[in-house]
């Protein structure tokens, strides 16, 4: 016999039930973040993040680091211009993502490609860094009740499959050959983001092909270094989905597909030689969150979308010119 966890508060849903002579609803109905499945997924995310941080700390201070101590590695990293360049990129990318709910991967990958990184190295670096940023973001969304359990589950498995397929594609082709195609994809995504500033999609019925959308979004996210947010979030919002739970569900699902794509990159291509850039991206992103909230409050969404779209479009066009020259 199932023991029900009833919500006995004076919520609007319970008021309707009382008027109809129905019993109070269960707690996870009025508080979506308390659903057993979402709670289990949230605690899994917490344990994964703690495990990853513990593993990195152990390797830094007790692993084989070529004769360097952990403190020496930290000192050399803090004195490296490359690290601080990555910090600036991570800060800027997180400001954009925090203000718009998308474009972290696209922005960071575009900058890393322009700095000379190969498509596989750039995408791997961004996804490893995103493990931490998306993890904290997803956990926050669950705690705030911004995750729709049904939508989250419909996005989860297809998104993971798409991410693995995208990682396989990008690691099996020569970087010099793939770079123009990845830059072309980023150019199109920049134009798409720019179009969102001046084009308002009319609301339609709830989408019927969420799994296909998640599969495609996960694929282009891993293959192109970004695109999950612009592809999935924008499509769902354009079809009339609830903005709050759509953004929360997409963000929480992104953590698990980022874990899958980052693991795939490491297994297929080995550990990237860009750990300094990864650390910079994470470090910069941590300090960007408060500024992103302030920027989101002060600047109109159209202005933010225009700036991001123009920047990504111009840089991607320049990368294509360099690759084909």
From TrEMBL:
Keywords: Cell membrane, Membrane, Transmembrane, Transmembrane helix. It comes from the Bacteria. It is found in: Cell membrane; Membrane. It holds the Pfam family TauE. It is a multi-pass membrane protein. The chain crosses the membrane at residues 40-62, 83-106, 118-139, 151-170, 176-195, 250-269, 275-296, 303-321. It comes from Pseudomonas fluvialis. The keyword Lipid metabolism does not apply. PANTHER family: MEMBRANE TRANSPORTER PROTEIN MJ0441-RELATED (PTHR43701), MEMBRANE TRANSPORTER PROTEIN YTNM-RELATED (PTHR43701:SF12). GO terms for cellular component: plasma membrane. The lineage of its organism: Bacteria, Pseudomonadati, Pseudomonadota, Gammaproteobacteria, Pseudomonadales. This is Probable membrane transporter protein. Its main location: membrane. Coiled coil: none annotated. Belongs to the 4-toluene sulfonate uptake permease (TSUP) (TC 2.A.102) family.
